[in-house]
Amino acid sequence: MELASISIRPGSTGTFFYGRAFQCLDIKGSYRALKCENLNEIKAIVDSGKFSGLSISMPYKSQVMVFCDDVDPSTFYGESINTMKFMGDGRIVGYNTDQAGVEAAVSNLAPGKTTILGSGSMAKIFSRELEKRGLEFEVYSRKLGNWEERNKTTSNVINCTPIGMDGISMPVSNLSGIKYIVDLPVSSLEFEKHAKAAGVLYFSGLEFYGHVFLKQLRVYTGKSITRKDLEEIKKEWNARV
User: Is the Cα torsion angle 127, 132, 135, 136 positive or negative in sign?
Assistant: First the structure.
């Protein structure tokens, strides 16, 4: 089984997690992180016939719809695709396993208002989930023109931006009143440090990725590792970084 991730800024998280999962499941396969700067480069990878599945990162989650013959309802009918599976009959089917992470993340929301940072596909999925649950929230982004207002008083913050990925930046400057943070960048060390120092419950990007990964692994392989295996993989990953 040959899998790959598609990203403008490829990382090593998926490569590590899938490598360990293949060992646990005794699957002969590989997972590569590929850099793509435009849709033509993705098309070349799709047309190469080398892969049985592709993991898609922003900003390509809506653009790859053009390569799919069918989409699972989890993609909001093609609006956001993070997983492409190449079927045995030649079809390419799009999925979105981000919902598994979203549901796990919002299960810990504190009572009160939620601030969502960013207006991309992840922010939209979180917004849909909060709407479905009848919860109050506000979205802030540069695209919406209200980014400078993001430090308003709130109970929860959901960071759907890349801010924090460098390990030293933070998406908000004031943690006063905040009881719960969901932070999607995998290596957001500074934000996590300040949150824990302030006694704020923190749901990390790695925790989010773990839920997304388990769902995606089942899509690709039809199999799953145990929670114990996942925790061991996360522990190994944290020791590396």
Answer: positive
